[in-house]
Specification:
Largest sheet: 2 strands, antiparallel
Radius of gyration: 30 Å
Structural class: mainly alpha
Shape: globular
Number of helices: 30
Strand order of the largest sheet: 1-2
Number of strands: 4
Strand content: under 5%
Distance between the termini: 57 Å
Length: about 675
Amino acid sequence: MARFLHHRPLLLLAAVSVAIVASSLVRPAAAVRPFVLVLSVDDFLKDSSAHPSLPSADSAGADGDADEWDDFADDSPGADPLLSPSSWVPLLDPSSSPPPGDGPDSPADSLFVAGARAMLSAASEGDDAAFITAAAQIEAAATAGHPGAQSALAFLSGAGMTRPASRSRAFLLHTFAADAGDLQSKMAIAYSYFRQEMYEEAVVLYAELAEAALTSSLISKEPPVIEPIRLHSGTEENKEALRKSRGEDDEDFQITEYQAQRGNAGAMYKLGLLYYYGLRGLRRDYRKAFHWFSKAVEKGDTRAMELLGEIYARGAGVERNYTEAYKWLALAAKQPHYSAYNGLGYLYVKGYGVEKKNLTKAREYFKLAADNKEAGGHYNLGVLYLKGIGVKRDIIEASNHLLQAVNAGQPKAIYQVAKLFQKGIGLKRNLHMATMLYKSVAERGPWSSLSRWALESYLKGDLGKALLLYSRMADLGYEVAQSNAAWILDRYGDQSICMGESGFCTDMERHLRSHALWWQASEQGNEHAALLIGDAYYYGRGVARDYERAAEAYMHAQSQSNAQAMFNLGYMHEHGHGLPLDLHLAKRYYDQAVEVDSAAKLPVMLALTSLWLRKNYADSFMVRFIDSLPEIYPVVEEWVENVLMDEGNATILTLFACLVTVLYLRERQRRQVAAANPQQPDGAAM
């Protein structure tokens, strides 16, 4: 099939993905991707004044109790989920404490830790025999009832690693692990329900996981902002994004650090942000963040004041001190930094660092923040009106404020709006929407830290470990991990250290796994994945050729305004491949491709010329030649790759081309001289 944009970057309109920020005091960090939730009047309930989930009007109102304040800061878990017996992080991070087991010398825990560690090592070293042995240890621990081992074995069973692939067995093992409290298995089960559109079941699990994600971010060592780095842009490596993810090894970071050490206040503030949020490949370090924010304030950068206030309020890297928090937030508000007003309002709601609770003043501060487009202000006003704290309860007003915060990427607002959709409060009950919103928050939970270790492994050239970790996250429903794992399989082939049913993957196993991963990513809105699925079916790559399924995949990509998919659909209509032969529809798709992407102008012009020839000279030699191109192209492409691109042949052909060029230029020079001296006999001295 004609392809006009073979390796161009694609615009990814994937499912919602937002940054979780451990902040109710100050502004949230920017969303990882734009988040726009558009609702119509029909989405709102006409009568939302009463609902069994809401406090009665008599118990709320102007003097509502601030204890009704819906905030997760006071409900932090007692233990870091990353250090649970099921977590892989202690196995990846030498600085982490070992995960606790069932007892001091738990045999099941010892088996799981040994097996998981050996599995990661075998993936790194490309040792298939060691991987099989490690999987057997994990299976033994799973048989003994270890939830982490059951979860890991479910992952291996679902992927078909060291055993036949079985989705039913994987689901059963995940269920056993989830019943024992394993959060990663709960993510996997929720995703399985989500794929099957079983929203009644999925929404319950994702709601639990979203709440866990928000609460755990307050004490986890992992950053509250997880940057899902895509390894590829289209079919090419995403070099720029990867360069910026090297942490302290990144040249830009080193320049910023040098400038900060030389006294540049802006660089100090930037370093503080990088360490506070754990951005661009850095580990979150509150102490370093506090150090650089303090230095920035000393140098006159007032932006750091509000973050110092948040640090003191949280006790992040320093002893918690609400008085200091109030001082720094008040100073920031005077600048004015309007997000600091949101923090001040929160302190007045809770009565922290101030003389007493003051809901009127809290509402005024929240409104100041919201009026200046601060998402936190909108979120907190939404909670006030939702709960009737200090104001008369107004569900419509609450919904409007919460939606403003949602579209700014405020994670707690996303959670609250999901709850409104789930329970039908103010908004019509919509479990699909609730599930989507909960999922976007849940995916920022501490289990997403595996993405950082996968990226670090990839940057170090450890493809085996990177593929294993991305595949694990793909099992939990992460679209970026699904596309990254699929891309590694396609890009690196045998070098990807893909483990199959009985050793390294065969070519067919690798193609099928890559195909399955791309398909999952396409279901979640990855248009490039949908395009590749269409190509796989169209050309019969790893699967049986099926033009109808190819058309279905291209339609999916086209629905996300993908110009290449539009061009392909036009081509299929022109030739009647999987779609009705319809030259008018073909032209429509070609025209749409140009409207979406101007880069399609030349190929579309050629395609329209082909349409004109086909319409007016249906049986001509030119039409037959055009129809033969798809058969000729793979042969030419293979010859170019296997002959011309061979290093030795390329050198010989280059020298031959140079020789021909020299002979041509000498001959042309001789003819020019002969033309300039027409009377000179042949053989005369020149």
